[in-house]
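From the methods appendix. Each design record in this collection lists the tokenized structure first, followed by the designed amino acid sequence. Records were kept in a plain field format so they could be parsed without special tools. The example shown here is representative of the layout used throughout.

RECORD:
FOLD TOKENS (176 positions):
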């Protein structure tokens, strides 16, 4: 797995880099060599935050955790990713490396996580009128949701605005 470790407004010490590499090595049983892991460490308001994103076979696995120290945050982020993978193991088994779950099922000391058997989906429709990003954020805030899908007036493509955990906003745009 290819790893990219960076710091946001900070430099990542070698000891932290080695810890991250060691913790993420456990995911090599799930992914092939062409998996890419991006780890970003930041220190804001005395909170150590670690964001881990793994991209493999068109699937994105992401976790963002805060802790009292970077090792604590790294451990929490890796544990959260492993829970995500194990919770969705039946659906992911077709996308992950062959035999990825054989080791886990043979290890009795690993806590069993109940897998979601089916998704309960509520379907809603909405008018897709073209609007700019600031109007979409206003509509999102008025609706009380944490995200809002809209038709971007500038590009003519579908887009999504969302509220991030830190209170900022994000914008998702399609590549093509």
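DESIGN:
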């Amino acid at each position: 797995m290819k790893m990219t470790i960076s710091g946001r407004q900070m430099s990542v010490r070698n000891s932290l880099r080695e810890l991250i590499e060691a913790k993420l090595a456990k995911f090599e049983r799930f992914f092939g060599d062409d998996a890419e892991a991006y780890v970003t460490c930041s220190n804001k308001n005395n909170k150590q935050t670690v964001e881990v994103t793994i991209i493999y076979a068109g699937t994105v696995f992401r976790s963002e955790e805060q802790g009292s120290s970077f090792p604590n945050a790294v451990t929490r982020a890796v544990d959260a990713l492993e829970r995500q993978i194990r919770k969705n193991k039946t659906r992911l088994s077709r996308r992950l490396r062959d035999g990825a779950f054989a080791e886990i099922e043979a290890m009795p000391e690993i806590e069993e996580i109940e897998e979601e058997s089916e998704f309960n989906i509520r379907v809603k429709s909405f008018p897709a009128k073209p609007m700019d990003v600031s109007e979409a954020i206003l509509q999102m805030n008025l609706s009380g949701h944490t995200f809002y899908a809209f038709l971007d007036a500038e590009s003519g493509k579908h887009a999504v605005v969302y509220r991030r955990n830190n209170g900022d906003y994000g914008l998702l745009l399609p590549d093509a």
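APPENDIX NOTE: The radius of gyration is 19 Å.
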